[in-house]
């Protein structure tokens, strides 16, 4: 049986985390998690795919999004990926913070809960300074007031983001340079997949609607995203199943049908293989830990 600690690790339940690194170790599947994520790209280029948008994030750009949005990063061969990734949840702040509340509202007002900011050199320097202070405090030993200091620096960072957003009104642009034909094509494929993910879809039908050769379609998607079309469909189904298990009291057999499984036994077996726990235990553990998507 999955323990609370196991599930906490599995579901990424840390209230705050920060990683600055250059390696190519990152989640290889579409996934979601509680809270918010900020990706500050210092050098290189990475592609972040959501269900409805694809962003080409390059040096000097900041991607901001809700962790509950299904997402995946993919770095094409030959590209550097120097970044700082910050994740935090509402539980990190002990009491209501005006800046944090405005940050929440800002994302909630968007049609999709993600946006990309391109910072000019001067602004990038200011932002990097906040990042450096936050990282230094987070990496330090258990100094007196460490959590309070991290909260202060994080609020300063969110204040910066809110002001930049108000000034630039970035919306959900995919890149400063504008979308490429490749990104347009990938978004078209994602739109079609999101229209059929819980149905008895076929590759032939999908390719026909996209006016693409089915073999080229499979090759293109795997090359651009890093997973196969079938893997994406399965990861999307598990994502939607988690939301239903958390946010409703729908019986497991109805959840299975709602996300496209032909039988509840097949759903339970597949869910356990992917999540290392059964749907029932997942629902119970998520409720105990106030886990939200």
Automatic annotation (TrEMBL):
Gene Ontology MF annotations: DNA-binding transcription factor activity; sequence-specific DNA binding
Keywords: DNA-binding, Transcription, Transcription regulation
Top-level division of the source organism's lineage: Bacteria
Keyword Transcription tagged: yes
Domain HTH araC/xylS-type intervals: 187-285
Pfam family of the protein (one): HTH_18
Protein's name in the database: AraC family transcriptional regulator
Species name: Paenibacillus soyae
